[in-house]
Amino acid sequence: MNALQFIETSIEDGIGYIFLNRPKQLNALNRKMVREIVTSMEAFDLDPQVKVILLTGNGKAFSAGADIDEMANDNPINLELTNQFADWDRISLVKKPVIGAVKSFVFGGGFELALSCDFLIAASDTQFSFPEVTLGVMPGAGGTQRLTKLVGKMKALEWILSAERINAKTALQYGFINKIVAPELLMEESVDFARKIAKQPPLAVRLIKESVNKAVDLSLYEGMQFERKNFYILFASEDQKEGMKAFIEKRKPKFTGG
Amino acid sequence: MYETITYRVENGVAWLTLNRPDKLNAFTSQMNKEIQKAIKTSAGSDEVRAIIITGEGRAFCSGQDLSDLDDSMNLGQLLRENYGPMMQQIASCEKPIIAAVNGVAAGAGFSLALACDFRLVSEKASFINAFVNIGLIPDSGNLYYLSRIVGHAKALELSLLGEKVTASEAKHIGIATKVISVEAWDEELKAFAENLANKPTKAIGLIKRYLEASYHLSLEEYLKEEAEGQRIAGLTMDYAEGVAAFTEKRKAQFIGK
């Protein structure tokens, strides 16, 4: 992996950690930073030591949005040629579960990064917002799509058009975060949750994530067919044999990941 | 830095004094914002471990300055833009806040006192939920706090009749933590605040947080939150000090972290 300038990564106990690391800028995302996040996720995805990825921010906030200075002078042609959002598409291709541990400001691109995660655990002081409209633009890294798929058109349109701040309680109520925890315990609780997922048989975890994500885009019929195929595939795994054998023998299974 | 209030920190206590004595410390939009800012500053300062809000001159606070009302704003906007954010700032402050009610606390001035954690009341002070007397409803969190402090029936009585409540009556119905004589005022105020400032500040903040949370949760949810709260308290240096002092049979020296 190339030297990382804007994030920090580490691996411990099956968890691949990514820390956004521009705390003075409240972890504002620039293009190189997004590239580093995506590249690190892909490396973790291929690393057998890593079972689950945990993404969070150093300092006060998760991420206050995109680096506005970087894009103030952009034009449509250079945006098309830079094709920066292609990096964001790669996040969706990561097969291992990605847990986001968010706090304080989760704005704009930071909100889109959070919505790219598979689970979100939020400190009680978290505020989400899409302020793009106040700058004369709009979300460009999935905001209008991912939020709408999660909460429906009515609330998504209201929030993206008003730039209103959404607190953690409202976020939980609308189902786009999994859990609220005290700010002091965000990492402890998130790591605890990550460990639980990391203990599950990895092949099953992988195919479950893939199947659930299919439900977002496919028709029910196609989704059911897809689910069925993944179900069948798991019967080729050692963990299926171990899991069912342990159940019959009334003991705890020992999963190997095979 | 401040024009309508004064702000100083001494021995761990932030003294926030409403400073428009000739107007009985009535609120202007500038004063709303300055109180909000001073509370935010106190909350973020390691040096501050207790906050006192009091009034300069003979009144604590007489409520909204009617001459400061902006004609372009309706009363709903006034609350949303000026009072709401100030009350939110006070509610989210995890340090103990004492209202030192030196004189009359009327209207939103009463609300301000109710939002604090303690009300130390001068024997010459009084409270009046004056809103109804001009055809308005108690605002700035008044009914929310008042009913919790004195109960539904008494809250209604004070709000519907709009009559003056003396210091001793305030003590009797649970509004006043303590009534203090004019002679002992300065000394007792200081002693009360400095005693609070030497307690385990983080634990105090957590107690405030989870007591408030209890009003919005089922018992099952609350017990889960409580476990989180105790986990956080158990990680503080003050907890370690508290246990050590207990074992060593000495007085604990808390640092607030």
Write a short abstract of this structure.
Chain A has helices at about 30-45, 70, 75-80, 85-90, 110-115, 145-150, 155-160, 170-175, 185-200, 200-215, 220-235, 240-250, and strands at about 5-10, 15-20, 50-55, 100, 105, 120-125, 125-130, 165, 180.
What does this structure look like?
The complex is a heterodimer of chains A (258) and B (257). In chain A, helix 1 (31-46) runs parallel beside helix 4, helix 6 (143-151) crosses helix 7 and helix 10 packs antiparallel against helix 11 (220-234). Helix content of chain A is 48%, strand content 15%. The model of chain A has no long low-confidence stretch (mean pLDDT 96). By secondary structure, chain A is α/β, with parallel strands linked by helices. Chain A folds into two domains: 7-199, 2-enoyl-CoA Hydratase, Chain A, domain 1 (Alpha-Beta Complex), CATH 3.90.226.10; 202-248, Lyase 2-enoyl-coa Hydratase, Chain  A, domain 2 (Orthogonal Bundle). Chain B is an alpha/beta fold and 257 residues long. Chain B has two domains: 5-197, 2-enoyl-CoA Hydratase, Chain A, domain 1, CATH 3.90.226; 201-247, Orthogonal Bundle (Lyase 2-enoyl-coa Hydratase, Chain  A, domain 2), CATH 1.10.12. Helices cover 47% and strands 17% of the residues of chain B. Chain B has ten helices and ten strands. Chain B has helices at residues 29-44, 75-92, 108-115, 142-150, 152-161, 167-172, 185-197, 201-214, 219-234, 237-247; strands at residues 5-10, 13-18, 50-55, 59-61, 97-101, 104-106, 118-122, 126-128, 164-166, 178-180. In chain B, the strands form two sheets. Chain B has a six-stranded mixed sheet, with helices on both faces. Chain B has a four-stranded mixed sheet with strand order 4-6-8-9. In chain B, strand 1 (5-10) and strand 2 form a beta hairpin. In chain B, helix 3 crosses helix 4. Chain B is globular, with a radius of gyration of 19 Å.
